[in-house]
Amino acid sequence: MRHTSSLLSLLVAFAAPAVGLAESGEAPVGKVAPVVVTATRTPQPLTRSLAAVTLITRDDITRSGVNSLPDLLRQRAGLDVVQQGGLGRASSLFMRGANSDQTLFLLDGVRMGSATVGSTPLELVPLSQVERIEIVRGPRSSLFGSEAIGGVVQIFTKQPDKPFQAEASAGAGSFQTRQVSSRVGGFQGDTFWQVGASHQGTKGFNARQPVPGPFGVDQPDADGYEDQSASLLVGHRFKRGDLAFSLFRTQGDYEYDGSYDHSDFVQQSLSLKGSLKPTDSWKLTLQGGQFRDQLGSHGPLVSSSRAATLRNSLNLQSDYTLLPGQTLTLGGEWRGEEVSSDTAFTSKDRENQALFLQHLAEWDRFELQAGGRFDKSDAFGDHSTWNLAGGYWLPYDFKATVGWGTGFKAPSFNQLYWPDTGFGGGNPALQPETSQSWEVGLSREVASWSWSLRGFDTRVNNLIDGWPPSNVSRARMKGVEVEVGGKLAAWEGRAEMTFLSAENRTTGKDLARRAGRLGSLHLAHPAGAGRVSLDLKQRGSSFDEAANTTRIAGYGTLDLHGEYPIGEGWVLKGTVGNLFDKAYQTVATYNSPGRYLFLEAEWRM
Fold it and tell me: In 299-380, where do the E strands start and end?
């Protein structure tokens, strides 16, 4: 499992049946393509997307056997997830080699994350409340503004699709892990509603090895995690529009090793969204949102620290169908960010206004996406971003795509406004990090098979580095992504691989914690009335820090998952993770879980 050659062979084996199945030269027909919205901010069939989009459905989540968002994302092309321990431990996502704060996370359209740190704690998002996830790889700043250099991950919470529905689950496993969740909802006439709640906890394991030195740690205790989450949705559909209010909240605490040894947290999202169709060809959408990120850190030998950020937003979007296959989108966004902290930031609020424009067009075999956005911030001034992509349907159902885009990442409050406490402070003169990306791709979808091959090249300037922070570095991330998936007889499979080169062009060294090779293989087969599956994940070696002195070894793990119906509406599930008890790290000195078992019973009405 130290090399990816065997996985590459399986990729080729899976791709072979898909070649030559169709010779029509038309866009694939015969099955309904899933609809996604993140890549263009408008509903679009997945097969029509010019960007690299991965859709993870609720069935994918429940059948994966994982119980955390980092574990779910690390199975996908272009995504490298590193984690400082087990469940609930700090996690970072490097999409196509971009920094962890250069990927935008949205929750039902509301911008997530901390304005002080500048990144999103994805490890704190409970999967039990998630309906689907859309992952868009490549710059999307021309639609969403800051943070979308690497791409966008949009998380959608559950929504009712029946007059009345209910479901519940409970599970337990290794490290005294337990999990319960429930959901009820439905619709009466044109009014719909839903309420959900969940709890997850674990005693955990010792997340960190002893580290010598004056700033070292040696705390050989289990590091636990607890969260409670709730969601609420209520709305009404009108003759020419709809209105919906949603609430999502998760709170809890986790333990770790260091001067601070435990923290409590709150993640909360509020959204009020309405749409109106004055005519059949014109749609208006207005959404007001708020995301709250709150963290308190505590320890026996240090004073407690607390910080909270609010991200308030208002989005207005107009979509107009000019002609069949031609859509013009015009929108505006206001965003205000506020910090409440016991740290005396030199500034605690800022605002950003933006306008964006996009044109989508289809002519026979050709597809086009072009757009631009202008952002005006009282913290870093004006910034413009652009996107242009085209696609062409070749004979035999092949689709060729090419895309170009620019992106930017605004400095965080910590980088701009942290007070000088004797070791230097924030730098209010910082400029946004900027990027320019190219991408080419070839894909094919026929019958029950699909595959894609994409190459990408991203160059980032004005990288913020050092302390006090300054715009001193440049980076280049280039690579290839391969995806193959489909069905063959009773087997269902998916294989994905990423080859990446991520370099700091200022120092000539590799960017920290980016693996040069990533691979995953998923195979599933019916077992009587049930189903069994295996997941192989491989990660190449990486360096732990910018100096490239500490190398983290590559590894491979194998997970087994099974499910079987045991009564009307009841399903029993079981997962054995890391079957061969592989010891590995993604961050130096931080342990990962060995072999573990998790059993779960699920009921759906």
Answer: 305-323, 326-341, 349-363, 366-377
Q: How far apart are CA 350 and CA 274, in angstroms?
A: 26
Q: Which residues of the chain have pLDDT under 50?
A: 1-30
At 31 the pLDDT is: 55
Q: Calculate the CA 211 to chain-centre distance.
A: 31
Q: What is the pLDDT of residues 473-496, one digit of tens each?
A: 999 999 999 999 999 999 999 999
| Listed residue (39, 35, 72) closest to 53, CA to CA | 39
Tokens 């961050």 -> residue? 587
Contact indicator for 360, 389 with CB cutoff of 8 Å: no
> Would you say 387 and 143 are in contact if contact means Cβ atoms under 8 Å apart?
yes
Task: From 49, 108, 100, select the one nearest 73 (Cα to Cα).
Answer: 100
Q: In whole angstroms, what is the distance from residue 388 CA to residue 367 CA?
A: 11
- Which 8-state DSSP code applies to residue 34? P
Please give the radius of gyration of the chain, using alpha carbons only, rounded to the nearest integer. 24
DSSP annotation string for 178-218:
EEEEEEEEEEETTEEEEEEEEEEEE-----B--B-STT-B-
Each residue's pLDDT tens digit, 343-379: 999 999 999 999 999 999 999 999 999 999 999 999 9
In angstroms, the CA 164 to CA 161 distance is: 8
Q: Is the pTM of this model over 0.90?
A: yes
